[in-house]
């Protein structure tokens, strides 16, 4: 990826990627803080489009690269999001929680168990299986809560973080398969359930990343990206304004 390539962060939340030029997040206000890290609202450090990831307002191939980290486990239509990622970007990165780890400690805001099918090593497929409860086993979950060991287990799992998540780099197409049906009531409850809580490790990683990427971020501050450069032709505006660090909504500009 070249220094001049446009990057989109889908589901940017309160921790947008340092390299992203444009952000997209569906739930930006405090009512859905649980979908992020418990913060009140999404971070608007760059142009942020408030839109559905399964129906993005962007033009075909508008971005060289799309980052989609810790989003697909929250959405009701991961297949639709995968199709949109393929449409608006030429390559990208997806990160989701791995099922075996999530079955030990998961978050009630997650809707899917995620696995990577590598039967064909040249074309790995992300498999999303619908959850029907916020835990894998009710008795085990009750024990973890009663014993007060959820945080300790979470820390152990995070110590081997590369095994806790699936990190999928894709080019040209996202291969994703959804299995099972989501219960509408469970999905609605997950939308307002408590989310991840930021730890000191997360804060430390963000600080180190900020320091290491400072030079590149300074170079890109002068980027003048116009509205019509990224949105679908049907959404073009006559004034074609330069994008700013604020929230954009295609149906109410």
UniProtKB/TrEMBL annotation:
Residues 48-92 form the Methyltransferase type domain. This is Methyltransferase type 11 domain-containing protein.
């Amino acid at each position: 990826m070249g220094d001049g390539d446009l990057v989109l962060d889908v589901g940017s939340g309160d921790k947008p990627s340092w390299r992203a030029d444009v952000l997209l997040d569906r739930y930006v206000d405090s009512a859905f803080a649980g979908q992020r890290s418990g913060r009140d609202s999404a971070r608007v450090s760059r142009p942020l489009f408030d839109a559905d990831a399964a129906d993005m307002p962007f033009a075909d191939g508008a971005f060289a690269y799309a980052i989609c980290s810790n989003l697909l486990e929250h959405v009701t239509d991961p297949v639709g999001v995968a199709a949109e990622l393929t449409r608006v970007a030429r390559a990208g990165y997806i990160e989701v929680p791995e099922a075996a780890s999530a079955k030990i400690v998961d978050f009630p805001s997650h809707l899917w168990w995620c696995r990577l099918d590598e039967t064909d090593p040249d074309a790995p497929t992300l498999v999303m299986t619908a959850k029907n409860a916020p835990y894998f086993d009710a008795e085990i979950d009750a024990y973890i809560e009663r014993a007060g060991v959820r945080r300790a287990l979470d820390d152990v799992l995070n110590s081997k973080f590369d095994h806790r998540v699936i990190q999928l780099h894709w080019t040209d197409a996202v291969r994703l398969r959804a299995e099972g049906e989501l219960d509408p009531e469970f999905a609605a409850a997950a939308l307002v359930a408590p989310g991840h809580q930021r730890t000191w490790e997360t804060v430390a990683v963000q600080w180190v990343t900020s320091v290491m990427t400072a030079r590149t971020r300074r170079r890109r501050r002068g980027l003048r990206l116009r509205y019509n450069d990224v949105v679908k032709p049907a959404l073009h505006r006559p004034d074609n304004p330069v994008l700013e660090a604020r929230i954009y909504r295609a149906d109410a500009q």
